[in-house]
Amino acid sequence: MNKPKIVWLNFSVFLITFLVAAIAVPYRAITHGFDTTELVVALCCFIYCGMSITAGYHRLWSHKTYQAHASLRFIFALGGAFALQNSILHWASDHRVHHKHVDNNDKDPYSAKKGFWYSHIGWMLREYQAHRYANYDNTRDLQKDPIVMWQHKNYLLLTILMNFGVPILFGLWHGDIISSLLLVGFLRLVLSHHTTFFINSLAHIWGKQTYTERNTARDNGFLAFLTFGEGYHNYHHIFENDYRNGIRWWQFDPTKWLIKGCEFLKLTSKLRTYPDDKIEKARLAMVLKRSQKKLLSHPNAEQMREKLQQEYDLLIARINDYYDVRKKLLASRRDKLIADVESSELAAQYQEFKQHLAEQQQHFQRLLTQLA
């Protein structure tokens, strides 16, 4: 079977940048050294590139999880060119196909089921889906954004200006062009590439399937640290239109914090989230499924399975009651339908259901502990 043609431009870029970063950067560090300013600027550029991909390419343009002011979109467009991961239009088109056909080896551009190498970088080295390369029918909404189309039409020029212009200008100002090109140019680019690529590869094979087993995506806190919050990938693949990936307060998701912070500056708006009860039900469904599997070897499997199902059904009922009354309470506050909602019957009912839910959660957790 003949393999698709090699994309020599991509092959050359990935190989040359990697070799320079792996050989020239350590050699320069040993023979010349890098100062603190150079390291800090390289880190800042790495963060800028990464956040332009996560907050811009991914959550803004690919999934429309929020709206952004033109100035912020322009900043992200430049950062995306700096990250050298193709134009917004092309990147978003690929990513939407990935979500629509995740793990389908014939349609998913970077299907994890074709192996780590393929999903990480191999899919870009050969013309595996050349018939799609110029088909942007799934991004017609983005084609109405003048910044997206400006970047797409001028992408090559912008990548040259950003990837050579920024390091050279900094090098001229700081007095060391070679170190700047190596750190801010090559090393930063290689790190930007491969940390982003980890989401297509590692995040589909390493971590927990917290919310669904319908696809290979995993939640991984370590990858979230490397990718500005994108590592909570199992959550993202079931709730893709949420502007958050890490939904817990303790989960590392600086992209979420950036988007939310910009809302206070009037730079972002209409931040989209999923209902808490829907998220919790998805998590509990996975807990139930795993617990049922553990019971297969239990001596009283059938009896324990029935008890587990009963506790689960009661917990879901409590969740429905709690979130239903909470919605009514919030609506009452918003619409001012009750004069003093804090002392109203609805507020009392809310506290009662909240207590019932907490008690049922404790019952369910105790049962799970017994099964462990």
TrEMBL record:
Q: Name one Pfam family in it.
A: FA_desaturase
- In the UniProt record, does the keyword Iron occur? yes
Query: What are the Fatty acid desaturase domain coordinates in residue numbering?
Result: 39-260
Query: GO molecular function: any one?
Result: oxidoreductase activity, acting on paired donors, with oxidation of a pair of donors resulting in the reduction of molecular oxygen to two molecules of water
A GO BP entry:
fatty acid biosynthetic process
Can you say where in the cell this protein is located?
Answer: Membrane
- Where exactly are the transmembrane stretches of this chain? 6-27, 39-58, 155-174
What membrane topology does this protein have?
A: Multi-pass membrane protein
This protein's major location comes to: membrane
Which keywords label this protein?
Fatty acid biosynthesis, Fatty acid metabolism, Iron, Lipid biosynthesis, Lipid metabolism, Membrane, Oxidoreductase, Transmembrane, Transmembrane helix
Question: Which is one Gene Ontology cellular component term of this protein?
Answer: membrane
Tell me its family: Belongs to the fatty acid desaturase type 2 family.
Can you name this protein? Acyl-CoA desaturase
What species is this protein from?
Colwellia hornerae
